[in-house]
Amino acid sequence: MLPLGRVLRSRALQQLQLRCQSSKALGDALPNSCDVLIVGGGGMGASSAFWLTSKTRQQGKKLNVLVVERDHAYTKASTVLSVGGVRQQFSLAENIQMGLYGHDFIVNSQMHLGDVDLCFQPHGYLVMATSKGAEILTQNSKLQNELGARNKLLGPEALRKQFPWLSTDQIELGCYGIEKEGWFDPWALLMGFKKQARSFGAQFANGEVIGFEWDGAGALSGAVVDAGDGIQRTVKFDTCVLAAGAHSGQLASLANIGSSHAKEALLRVPLPVEPRKRYVYVFSTQGENCPGLATPLTIDPDGTYFRRDGLGGNFLCGRSPCDEEEPNCETLDVDHGYFDTDIWPTLANRVPCFEA
């Protein structure tokens, strides 16, 4: 194995940082008011702006939509730091249906977003299970196919035949997505949403929402925005959309959501969203019999995953830690040791050529 720093601070991230720096042009000026304020301009915020302006435009109406994003270069945005996967291999019907819609949108993105290439790689997912999880994997596959997904179940022998690089030690079953799954360029999708929403009249301003204001009846009526120039401005709105990702729970508390003094019972319940940090590592290998260009995003029973990244023998990989090992979220610092002790042993066992 030829390490590339083993973390996202690799050539891939350097390229991402260059693209982020190119997006640092000043945003739109903060208006005094808007119809809809969207707090957060990442994937969900930009998508919300696109759909709101697109639908009202189709109806011959105009909606004044403002998106406020504090990380205007998206250097810490989960959207662009993700591995960009789209799949239907879930156990919940709603997630499967959303995955199907997500795939359809991505492959037809130019119908919605114009001239944008999302670089979709339709190589599927391969989810594997031991004897303990084989029955659940079978049930999930049945539901997924009933809802329109296309995947097939493979036993150890069939897995080795289709993926000669794979060690099936302790593997009872694998579920391979043969259609409608893969990965794409999340930066391109974000920029596509943002560009199209802007063309439909949405505004994107740089700033951080640091508080809210209420009218005489106790309803939210405005947001206090710090634009980074030392001046706090209030933007009045009719409707506010919280799209701040992992920080939405904290933002909701600023709006008194979760307060025991809220008039409505529903608003006394805190928004159960808080940050979690996940490491994505990069490694490179030129070993013989290594996973080829059509390799699916492969998930081991212990949760370790990997997929190819480009054509140069590079791979992305990672794994969610157990509850007792949740890392500190205050910074984006990467734990190099977690790769060596928790991830690499699984990768080397599952794909022996990675050791070459």
From TrEMBL:
GO terms for CC? mitochondrion
Annotated FAD dependent oxidoreductase domain residues: 35-327
- Which Pfam family would be a valid example here? DAO
Keywords, ordered alphabetically: Oxidoreductase
**GO biological process, alphabetically ordered:** mitochondrial respiratory chain complex I assembly
Q: In the record, what terms sit under GO molecular function?
A: oxidoreductase activity
The residues that cross the membrane are: none
The record describes the protein's role as: Required for the assembly of the mitochondrial membrane respiratory chain NADH dehydrogenase (Complex I). Involved in mid-late stages of complex I assembly.
Protein name, per record: FAD-dependent oxidoreductase domain-containing protein 1
Q: Which organism is it from?
A: Drosophila guanche
